[in-house]
Every structure is written in C-alpha cells, then in structure tokens.
Amino acid sequence: MKALVTAPGNTAVVADVPVPEPAANEIRIKVHSLALNPVDALYVAHPVAPPGRVVGSDISGTVEKVGENVTQWSVGDRVAGFLQGATSGNPRPGAFAEFATLQADLAIRIPASVSFEEAATLPLCSLTAAQALFIRLGLHAPFSHAIDAEKDMGESPAILIYSAATSVGLFAVELARTARTATGKPYRIFATASTKHHQRLLNSGVEGVFDYRSPAWPEDVYKASGGIAGALDCISEDDSAAKISQTFRESGGTIAVIRQSAWHREGFKDKVTAVYSAVWSGLGHEILYNGGTIPASPSWRAFTVEFFKFLSAGSPTDPSRFPISPLPTRLMPGGLSNIVTDAFPLLGSGKVMDRSYQGSEPWLKPISAEKLVYHVQ
C-alpha cells in the first residue's frame, strides 16, 4: 500500500509499505480522509527516530477487516480515530496510508449525517480538549469516566479558552457548553480570538470574546468575568500562559497548556499553576516523547474509550450528528503526495504564532479556524 513515511533530510515521501494486519481486538480500516495537525509537520521537520516511520494522526474510513475478538464492528462500518505516527521515539503506528489499524475500542462511530471529511477533524483535537477540561481543569464531564479529577470551582464558574478559534479551542468551547457543574449549572465561557471570529464564538455560547492582540485583554477578561477559575491555553507559547494567569481570581487556579516547553513561567500570578499532558497518553501505551518517557496510563486510556463512546452515540437531539460540531474543513487537492509540499508549509514546523507561509493558489491561504483535509482513496 502507499503511505507517507519519514525520509532522510527531515522530510517525508510516499512509499510502498506492507498492509497492516489487525491483531486481536483491532480493526483495519480503508482510509478515506485524513486531517492535518501541527505535530504531523513538526516531527517530520524534527524527527525523533530513524527514517521509515509512517506519518500522521487523524483519519476516517470504513472497516475493511476485523481482528479476533472484535464484536462491536463489522466490515463496512464508518469509523474515525487517531494514531501516533512518527511523533514518538518508540515505534508507534502511523495513519497517513491507504490502510491503518486501530484498537477496536478506540475507534469512533461516524453518525449517518457526518461526512468522512468532517469526521477526520475530531479524534486528536477533541480528545485534547476533553482531557484539558475534564481531567486537568476538573470540569464536570457530560459523560461518565473513572478519573477523579473534578475540582470545586464554585457555582457557575468562569473559564477561559485562549485562542478559541484554533482546532482545540473550537472543540473546547463546544464541550464546555455541553458540560454542567455537579449541581447542574452551566459554566461561563470566555474566549480570546482575532476579531473576525468573535461573532461566531458569541453565537456558539461564549459569554465574552476578547481580541488577543489588545494589550488590555487580560484586564478586560478579569473585569467581565469577575475572575477566571480555570483556563485552556490553546497556543502555549512565549508569555501566553503568564498573560492568562492575570485573568484569574485571587484564589488562583489551573491553566491547561498544550505544549511542554514553548512557553515560560515568568510573570505568573500567585496561586495560578500550569499543567501539561500529552494527548498520546489517551492511547494507553508507554511513550518516548519530548526527551522523556510517559508511562502507560490505563486510566487515561479508559477516559478515551468513554469519550469516544460519547461521540459515537451522537447528539441527544439528533443522533445522526456528533454531540459536538466537527471543524470546518478545507479540502486540499491531491492526496498523500501533496501533503509535504502544500500542507506542511502552511502548518509550519515551529511556533504557531510564527506561521508566515502563503502560497499563490487559493488552497494555500493561511489557516484560520479550519482543518486541512485530504482524500486518500
């Protein structure tokens, strides 16, 4: 089969690799669509293992073969999921190929009215948002899970989604909107974004949106909210977390950051802490990552299983849709062979705030509140 694999020179090429066989409790899917994430480009430009690894995370397609003991899936079922392609020091499967294998309980059933392109946008970024909100910040989740992470934030606490028009941010807004405190009260959601996205976020249930380019935004958020109780930093670069800390109430709280070392701690408000975790922990394997080892976590994997069941069940008001909205998509021309030349320059291989590439073709305009999606087959 054709797959996108890492190659000498810190790049990736389309190559022929063996079709993977599903092990017990796995399914093989015929990949229809894939969605790009910044880590896909980052770890090709800065490889953590020798060449030859299959690249890529988010995919959707149809079940083509089921392994032993698999009873919840049948050939032809539409599913989505994510893998850890080329982002770890230890060998982990990648997704950007004609076929891929997923563990059966870590696949998402695609509701009837959701396209393959839409479904491919969900797995990695929606799980990142769910882990941040319901494990690290301790919000009361709209689904059952075994991790005792809930924090007493008071009645109708205010939370902040910094850079809410990013993929993780948009999902975080959706999830926070569906959540309720233990006493049934909604969370008050505040956000930062560029001004062109303000109305969209207000329409989605955000109480107040602020322009992150304004030097006064932390003070404005504090005044509007009365003090933030928990925040998700969807950029986590330079002084982003320090600025977010200034929006917190005097009793402090937690900022969930999505990057480990691209931000600094200088200027933090007293009693505000930042907590990092890697979304890959949700796959349940030991991971060699960012120069260290993340132990396998059965509890984080169990959380993923329950969250993916929540997505698979569909919306309570319309089971043909997901309970949260997929991301807007930009369908890119070509297939696997166009990812390195077109998508990777748009994603960049360093800081999100440093992206400057823009090509001459319409599909090469800068990314804004959308996912780059390719068809594979």
From TrEMBL:
GO molecular function: oxidoreductase activity, acting on NAD(P)H
Gene3D superfamilies: Medium-chain alcohol dehydrogenases, catalytic domain (3.90.180.10), NAD(P)-binding Rossmann-like Domain (3.40.50.720)
All copies of domain Enoyl reductase (ER), residue ranges: 9-353
Name of the protein: Zinc-binding oxidoreductase
